[in-house]
Every structure is written in structure tokens, then in C-alpha cells.
Design a protein that fits this description.
Structural class: alpha/beta
Order of helices and strands: EHEHHEHHEHHEH
Radius of gyration: 18 Å
Bound molecules: ligand Z5A
CATH topology: Rossmann fold
Distance between the termini: 23 Å
Length: about 270
Amino acid sequence: MPAAQAPLPPLPHRGAFITLEGGEGAGKTTQARRLAEKLRARAITAITTREPGGSPRAEVLREILLSGLIKDLGAKAEAIVFAAARIDHIDHTIRPALLAGTWVICDRFADSTRAYQGSFGGVDPGFLEVLERTTLDGVRPDLTFVLDLPAEVGLARAAARRAPETTTDRFESEALGFHETLRRSYLAIAAAEPERCVVVDATADEGEVAEAIWDAVCSRLFAEGAPRKAENSRESSGSTRKPGKKREQDEAHPAPAPRSTSSSKTLA
Ligand code: Z5A
């Protein structure tokens, strides 16, 4: 599909790509939904999506990955399967949306491979770098939020949310030390790429976290501050729910009305 591999135009000639990263129960799904609602209220078309998953074939790979079937093949094989899911997600959801002018808010992305399979799984960083470059093919986040909180707080939130009859998935069942290693890994990624990453204190209440995220979106993606609220604003639309686990993923929206190129700064 040669057209899909053309380089993305710079902002604002496409939608912005925002990712949310962090440990289990940090609030990524919650904040993705809240951010999409804020954008839509300002007449900016936005979808939320997730990884692993986000396209029909990638959702199949998600089931396999979270079931633990790939675990015995080792972290390197897991990284490759996460990458395979990501390629399909980019080709069928992310890139088409960005090219149509839709903002894409993604719950986990390539930093999760760096943290889980890299820092914790011990996969060679050189291998992961090549894998990431090949997989992303130029589709890199404009802005990444690292939702930071102590591992035990996130795990307690996830446990409180879990339906009584469901079990933990392949990653939730890892020891506390695993989740603390992940936390340090995400903070290291943010420290290494401050132009892309913003660390947000995820122990604050949902509203405060949402405000911190919105402030950063406005200051980093809108040169003139918060975009004007539209007269005919739209709020959140459809969502899907995975059995036993809260999940929200929206249908793609049609392309938005063109926005003034002077109201955004170019990040790409
Ligand atoms: N993985 C990988 O290894 N390599 C990769 O490349 C990728 C992923 C992409 C996917 O799990 C797993 O795949 C993940 C990493 C691995 N493993 N783990 N663990 P997932 O998608 O099923 O789970 P998750 O990404 O960890 O999401 P989560 O558990 O759903 O957490 P969350 O999205 O960050 O949180 P939430 O759903 O928004 O909120 C959790 C609960 O806390 C919920 O009841 C909320 O109402 C509540 N909440 C949210 N915010 C707050 C605040 N501020 N205060 C209090 N309570 C709150």
C-alpha cells in the first residue's frame, strides 16, 4: 500500500498524535476519553484508540498477547508480536485518521515496548530501536503523557475495578518489583525526550490530571493557547467494552472542518 507509506505532513496539515503511557491503573484510558471530549467540545475531531489493539487484526493479536501464549517464547518474540499489531494499527487506524485531519489519542504506544520488553524484558536496545523505526515508519507521537504514580497505587486501582470472576492478565500478574521497574523506565524515557514527553502526577484526582493534560496540550500544540470553544460543540460518541475490563475506543469520525494554520505550531 504505497500511499500509506508516504511521509506524514507536518502539523497542522494533519491531525495531532497524542499518546498516554504509564503503569497499570495509572488512568490512561480515563484521561484519553476526557481529552477527546475536551477536543470535540472545541470542534476538533478526535478518536481514542489503544495498544495492543486498535484495529481488527491487532485486536486479535491483543487477545493472544494478554493471554500469555507468547510469554514462553521470550520478551524478544513478544516485542515482535507487539510490533506486528502496531503495524496494522498504524496502517488501518492511526495514519488514515491523521491524514484526514483527525486527532488520535492512543492508550499506550511504542514507549510501552521500550519499557516492558526493553527495560524489564531485557531485549537489546539496538534491536528495539531498529524494530521501532521500521514499525513506526515516521508515525511518531507529537506529544506523550507519562502518567506517573507508585506501582502499588495503580495495581490497587486496577484490582478494585476488576470484576470478581475475572483473573489478572499476563502482565498484571507480575510482581510489584516489575511494576516499579516500569515506572522508572517511563520516567527515564520522559527525561530523555522532554520535547515530546510530559510527566503528569497521576495520584491527583481525575479532574486535576485532566487539567494538567489539557494545559500541556494547549501550550504545546496550540501556539495561541486553548482553542476557542465551538458554538455547536460535540461531546463523546461511541465506545466499546471488553468483558471484565473497562475499555473505550471510538469509531473514527469524518474529517474535521479545516483549522487555521496560524493557530498551531509545527512540531513534526
Ligand atoms: N504492553 C507491552 O508489554 N508492550 C507494548 O508494546 C504494549 C503493551 C503496547 C496492556 O494492558 C498490556 O500490554 C499492558 C502492557 C503491555 N500490561 N499491563 N499491565 P491493558 O491495556 O489491558 O492494561 P493497561 O494499559 O495497564 O490499562 P489499565 O489497567 O486499564 O489502566 P489505565 O488505562 O491506566 O487506567 P484506567 O482504566 O483509566 O483506570 C483504572 C481505574 O482507576 C478505574 O477504575 C478508574 O476509574 C480509576 N482511576 C482513573 N484515574 C483515577 C484517578 N486520578 N484517581 C483515582 N482513580 C482513578
